[in-house]
Amino acid sequence: DTGVSQDPRHKITKRGQNVTFRCDPISEHNRLYWYRQTLGQGPEFLTYFQNEAQLEKSRLLSDRFSAERPKGSFSTLEIQRTEQGDSAMYLCASSLTDSGHNEQFFGPGTRLTVL
Amino acid sequence: AQSVTQLGSHVSVSEGALVLLRCNYSSSVPPYLFWYVQYPNQGLQLLLKYTSAATLVKGINGFEAEFKKSETSFHLTKPSAHMSDAAEYFCAVASGGYQKVTFGTGTKLQVIP
User: Which of A33, A93, B17, B76 meets the CB 3.0–4.6 Å disulfide criterion with B13?
Assistant: First the structure.
């Protein structure tokens, strides 16, 4: 399967712990996005990479959140000192630079539960 | 600034009936518009997209949507609902050269046998 993959699919952690999620985009895609989706809401943009450069971060991305894409391929999203409000589905998407249609392909998501 | 409003968080239709999911957008520049579908515990799958070509866009699984600039709408339709269409549907907008996509809050479609 050559789609976007995310690992783990589910993560349960205690408040205050750190967690890290991984996203592997479609191999030729140079753009990678992270979104957060809470129950009853649509995905909310967190951050976006073009190759290894992080080009924008949402105000939703507090100082406890950090994302990297060191070699322009896979990306990690780390949450430090997790809080119960961080419980959500974290979605990764990727796309290929083109004329601007911006069709993003989504992974299955990582569901985080903070106890 | 860009935004999307989906009218109706839940829609129920009978199997075989018309599906109509409403979406209105706001964008300061000509938008790109998308409909995505999400099945439980899965990521989002693109149903169709409007990119300033034809105003009537056909997508997968028999869905289509019509871009109406005067009404700032991009409603999703399907002539005959199947049980397998039960899912959550998200309308989304992207505008300008920037890649940020803004999603609506979603509409859960229930199909009644």
Answer: B17
Mean pLDDT of chain A: 91
d(CA A45, CA A26): 19
Q: Residues A48, A51, A53, A55: is their CA dihedral positive or negative?
A: negative
**Residues B95-98: contacts with CB within 8 Å, 24+ apart?**
B95/B2, B95/B27, B95/B28, B95/B29, B95/B30, B95/B31, B95/B32, B96/B29, B97/A100
pLDDT at B99: 66
Residue A88 to residue A75: CA distance in whole angstroms = 18
Mean pLDDT of B68-91: 95
C-alpha torsion B13→B14→B20→B22, nearest 10 = 10
Mutant choice from A51, A101, A105, A110 vs B, greatest count of B C-beta within 10 A: A101
SS3 label, residue B42 = coil
- How many CB pairs (< 8 A) connect A and B? 58
